[in-house]
Amino acid sequence: MSRSEDTIWCDGCGTEIRWVPYVVEAQDFCCQNCAYGLSCKCGETMDWDEEYRDTTASSTPYTSM
Questions:
Q1: What pTM was computed for the model?
Q2: Cβ count within 10 A of residue 16
Q3: Quick one: which of 26, 25, 30 has its CA closest to 8?
């Protein structure tokens, strides 16, 4: 798809790629499945990771010194 500043978007599914892309014929893909036109779950995995970080951060008590 495109690059804007340091952001890379998957040419297959449009997911933001936060890791080293899978490159085929000068196109960036989030995974091998996307590169071959198969279904991919990279976007879902990123959502789960963000949800986990959000719940972990909100449940961690903050102690000031």
A1: 0.63
A2: 13
A3: 30
